């Protein structure tokens, strides 16, 4: 899956919610807090991490390429 970034960045929890990988923002935050999200192959635990172009986010079996 790809996400086209039109701003300088998007916060991680907002990206997960925007792509409908969860039903609520709270669920997105819980996924991040419980170490279920990878950013460029490393666990990301910051809910408000600034995701920029060329980042690769992995949530379970879903891989998001940010372009």
Summarize the structure.
This protein has 67 residues and is an alpha+beta fold. It has 2 helices and 7 strands. The chain has one domain (2-66): RNA-binding S4 domain (Structural Genomics Hypothetical 15.5 Kd Protein In mrcA-pckA Intergenic Region, Chain A), CATH 3.10.290.10.
Radius of gyration based on Cα positions: 10 Å
Strand order of the largest sheet: 1-7-6-3-4
DSSP helical segment count: 2
Order of helices and strands: EEHHEEEEE
Portion of residues in beta strands equals: 25-35%
- Shape, per Cα inertia axes: globular
Q: Fraction of residues in helices?
A: 10-25%
CATH topology: Structural Genomics Hypothetical 15.5 Kd Protein In mrcA-pckA Intergenic Region, Chain A
Strand count, sense and barrel status of the largest sheet are:
5 strands, mixed
The CATH architecture designation is Roll
The overall strand count is: 7
* Corresponding CATH superfamily: RNA-binding S4 domain
Which blocks of ≥5 consecutive residues have pLDDT under 50?
none
Number of domains: 1
Q: What does this entry look like structurally?
A:
By secondary structure, this protein is of the alpha+beta class. The chain has a single domain (2-66), classed as RNA-binding S4 domain (Structural Genomics Hypothetical 15.5 Kd Protein In mrcA-pckA Intergenic Region, Chain A), CATH 3.10.290.10. 24% of the residues lie in helices and 30% in strands. It is built from 2 helices and 7 strands, in the order ββααβββββ. The protein has helices spanning 12-18, 25-33; strands at residues 2-3, 10-11, 37-39, 42-43, 50-51, 56-59, 62-66. The chain has a 5-stranded mixed sheet with strand order 1-7-6-3-4, with no helix packed on it. The chain has a two-stranded antiparallel ribbon with strand order 2-5. Helix 1 packs across helix 2. The mean pLDDT is 96.
């Amino acid at each position: 899956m790809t996400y086209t970034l039109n701003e300088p960045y998007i916060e991680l929890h907002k990206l997960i919610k925007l792509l409908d990988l969860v039903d609520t923002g709270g669920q997105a935050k819980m996924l991040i807090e419980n170490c279920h999200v990878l950013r460029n192959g490393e666990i990301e635990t910051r809910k408000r991490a600034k995701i920029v172009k060329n980042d690769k986010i992995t949530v379970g079996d879903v891989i998001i390429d940010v372009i």
